[in-house]
Amino acid sequence: MAKLTESMTNVLEGDSMDQDVESPVAIHQPKLPKQARDDLPRHISRDRTKRKIQRYVRKDGKCNVHHGNVRETYRYLTDIFTTLVDLKWRFNLFIFVMVYTVTWLFFGMIWWLIAYIRGDMDHIEDPSWTPCVTNLNGFVSAFLFSIETETTIGYGYRVITDKCPEGIVLLLIQSVLGSIVNAFMVGCMFVKISQPKKRAETLVFSTHAVISMRDGKLCLMFRVGDLRNSHIVEASIRAKLIKSKQTSEGEFIPLNQTDINVGYYTGDDRLFLVSPLIISHEINQQSPFWEISKAQLPKEELEIVVILEGMVEATGMTCQARSSYITSEILWGYRFTPVLTLEDGFYEVDYNSFHETYETSTPSLSAKELAELASRAELPLSWSVSSKLNQHAELETEDEEKNPEEQTERNGDVANLESESKV
After folding, report:
1. Which of 368, 378, 336, 379 is nearest to 354 (CA)?
2. Percent of the chain whose pLDDT exceeds 90
3. Band of pLDDT at residue 203, cut at 50, 70 and 90
4. CB neighbours of 236 closer than 8 A, spacing ≥ 6?
5. Would you call 348 exposed, middle or buried from its count of C-beta atoms within 10 A (0-12, 13-18, 19+)?
6. Do the beta carbons of residue 204 and residue 354 sit within 8 Å?
7. Domain Potassium channel inwardly rectifying transmembrane, which positions (predicted)?
8. pTM
9. In sequence order, what are the residues at sequence separation of 6 or more whose Cβ sits closer than 8 angstroms to the Cβ of residue 326?
10. Which pLDDT does position 24 carry in this prediction?
């Protein structure tokens, strides 16, 4: 292990000999995260073996991140409503039942204690005795009266009397607290039921992303679609590149996020998602794929996260669908098969071909190399044009030198003709 560390340090020192950066030995700190140790820069491990890329976002849109060592758990209780909404259904239903049951039992116990302290249990058969609650003869009947009070059922068999002021106060407290519990729990269940997570499942992304030429430019493309007839209002698309990097100062940034322009400046990121659309990213100098070629793409450890957002037309709630593409899911030299056809009076979308692609002629060079080749191809043309212009200028100069002699001869001929005409 010591030899391995020494060799890695030597490699780092050899690579950064002429640079004024921090000591690379800091990378081997004991508290370095596991992901950072796995994603060490390329120049540190030249002969590393190929390993499976760990997804940051799964294909179904769920983030593959687990929060550990969270000590300030009390923060979850400060936002108890969101905590309950985020719980799984089985825990949510369990808490829903337990809150009502505990509330009914608690107030039922208090009603029974009031009746017990007043002596109502000792005068059950005494018609001259006025109890706090009529026909309350035990804990079971007190529990039933608590349920009737909080849920406002009111069967009419057990009724509070006006000779019990403590019972009247308890009735007011239970009515108010019961309304609060109902509002809180019913609201929690309503929000959980109406969450747009299920709506996001009908927003689909293509299983692969493709790279091919479009309008003479190398583009990265993927396809999105909506399976429902009700549309997503104000739909917008975003894309992020997830890739670890190391700065020039030696700082290692795991899972660095870089924006991928999918039409933000032109407005193409705002979608009218009635039929499937192909989202295109032009690979230019500002693109993170500027220097990536077909041969280099499988060697890259990167992930493209795509995010589709919009409002559900039926409920007005914001919906978000996510997916991701790793290097093995990016096809170089392919295009998507068209899915939209014109029928008799309407357009039809064939979702059987939604994920299908077909191969097309695409250069295997990177966008940077293609731009350099294009600039080199223009140089001979400029040279030929300039040379022709120079030749044309030289010819004009020669013509100007010959023109005075010819003009003199012509003037002489004219003068001779005039003298002859005078004679």
Report:
1. 336
2. 45
3. very high
4. 269, 270, 271, 308, 309, 310
5. exposed
6. yes
7. 57-196
8. 0.65
9. 53, 55, 302, 303, 304
10. 38
Residue 216 region by backbone torsions, left for phi larger than 0, else alpha for psi between -120 and 50, else beta: left
366, 368, 369, 370 alpha-carbon torsion, rounded to 10°: 90
Cα end-to-end span (Å), the chain? 120
Q: What is the pLDDT of residues 242-281, one digit of tens each?
A: 999 888 898 999 999 999 999 988 899 999 999 999 999 9
The string of pLDDT tens digits covering residues 65-113 is: 888 887 777 777 778 888 888 888 899 999 999 999 999 999 999 999 9
Q: What residues are paired with 357 via a beta bridge?
A: 336
* Sole residue written with tokens 């292990």: 1
Report how far residue 40's alpha carbon sits from residue 25's, in angstroms, rounded to the nearest whole number. Answer: 12
Q: How far apart are CA 131 and CA 115, in angstroms?
A: 7
Secondary structure in 3-state letters for the chain: CHHHHHHHHHHHHHHCCCCCCCCHHHHHCCCCCHHHHHCCCCCCCCCCCCCCCCCCECCCCCECCCCCCCCCCHHHHHCHHHHHHHCCHHHHHHHHHHHHHHHHHHHHHHHHHHHHHHCHHHHCCCCCCCCCECCCCCHHHHHHHHHHHHCCCCCCCCCECCCCHHHHHHHHHHHHHHHHHHHHHHHHHHHHHCCCHHHHCCEEECCCEEEEEECCEEEEEEEEEECCCCCEEEEEEEEEEEEEEECCCCCEEEEEEEECCCCCCCCCCEECCCCCEEEEEECCCCCCCCCCCCCCHHHCCCEEEEEEEEEECCCCCEEEEEEEEEHHHEEECEEECCCEEECCCCEEECHHHCCCEEECCCCCCCHHHHHHHHHHHHHHHHHHHHHHHHHHHHHHHHHHHHHHHHHHHHHHHHHHHHHHHHC
Q: What is the residue whose two structure tokens read 């430019």?
A: 217
pLDDT score at 409: 44
* Gap between the Cα atoms of 264 and 237, Å rounded: 9
Separation between Cα atoms, residue 339 and residue 337, nearest integer Å: 6
Query: What is d(CA 261, CA 240) in angstroms, rounded to the nearest whole number?
Result: 9
Give me 156's structure tokens. Answer: 């009419």
Strands 209-214 and 330-332: parallel
